């Protein structure tokens, strides 16, 4: 199974997520926003130095001009020596033309199988049930967001469920059989 984090790095929450992951010896994949990489370069460097995998999540989480956002995020990451061909579309939305361009450009588009809805719960936008972390299974891709308190609160619960089931967290590229990208 793979733990993935979107929408960072953020100064308030990403360091806490990194601390939890380090304490548990858990690798993860971070889908970063280019504007936040520029805003929080030391946190981005720390994420990379810790051995976590990096993926592209666009520039600013807007659905507009996604191809240009992807390229801009790539340029920003490359200034830190990071090249990634993993991409996760903001909100999981992507049309056929962008999907075709991504494939033609050598990207692997990554979605998820278990959504923590942590950002939506933090923002009061979620009216459904809380996620059932006890249901995590081999092969799952867990989506969290390193930009909110619910993520920091839930991450130890997720890790406990993973370890109780004897699952081995790995970076996303390993789970899906790609060469490491960070």
Structural account:
With 182 residues, the chain is of the alpha/beta class. Helix 6 links the parallel strand 6 and strand 7 (141-145). Helices cover 41% and strands 14% of the residues. The two termini are 18 Å apart. Helix 1 packs parallel to helix 7. The chain has helices at 14-24, 34-39, 41-49, 66-78, 96-104, 118-122, 149-164, 172-176, and strands at residues 2-8, 29-32, 53-56, 86-87, 108-109, 114-115, 141-145. The mean pLDDT is 93. It is globular, with a radius of gyration of 15 Å. The chain has a single domain (2-176), classed as TIM Barrel (Alpha-Beta Barrel), CATH 3.20.20.370. The strands form 2 sheets. Strands 3-2-1-7-6 form a 5-stranded parallel β-sheet.
What percentage of residues falls in helices of 4 or more residues?
A: 40-55%
Question: Helices and strands: which structural class?
Answer: alpha/beta
Strand order of the largest sheet: 3-2-1-7-6
Radius of gyration, rounded? 15 Å
Strand content: 5-15%
Cα(first) to Cα(last) distance is: 18 Å
Which CATH C-level class is it?
Alpha Beta
Strand runs, count = 7
Major sheet: 5 strands, parallel
The total count of helices amounts to: 8
Please tell me the total number of domains: 1
| CATH architecture assignment name | Alpha-Beta Barrel
Report the principal-axis shape.
globular
The CATH homologous superfamily: Glycoside hydrolase/deacetylase
The SSE order reads: EHEHHEHEHEEHEHH
Remind me, CATH topology?
TIM Barrel
Low-confidence stretches: none
Q: What is the typical, i.e. mean, pLDDT?
A: 93
């Amino acid at each position: 199974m793979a733990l993935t984090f979107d929408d960072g790095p953020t100064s308030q929450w990403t360091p806490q997520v990194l601390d939890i992951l380090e304490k548990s010896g858990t690798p993860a994949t971070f889908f970063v926003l280019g504007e936040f990489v520029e805003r929080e370069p030391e946190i981005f460097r720390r994420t990379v130095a810790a051995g976590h995998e990096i993926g592209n999540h666009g520039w600013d989480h807007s659905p507009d001009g996604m191809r240009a956002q992807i390229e801009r995020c790539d340029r920003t990451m490359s200034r830190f020596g990071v090249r990634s061909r993993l991409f996760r579309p903001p909100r999981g939305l992507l049309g056929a033309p962008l999907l075709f361009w991504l494939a033609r450009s050598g990207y692997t588009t990554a979605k998820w199988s278990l959504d923590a809805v942590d950002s939506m719960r933090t923002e009061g936008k979620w009216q459904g049930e809380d996620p059932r972390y006890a249901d995590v299974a081999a092969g799952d891709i867990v989506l969290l967001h390193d930009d909110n308190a619910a993520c920091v609160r839930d991450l130890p619960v997720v890790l406990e469920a993973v370890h109780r089931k004897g699952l081995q967290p790995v970076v996303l590229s390993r789970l899906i059989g790609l060469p490491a990208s960070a």
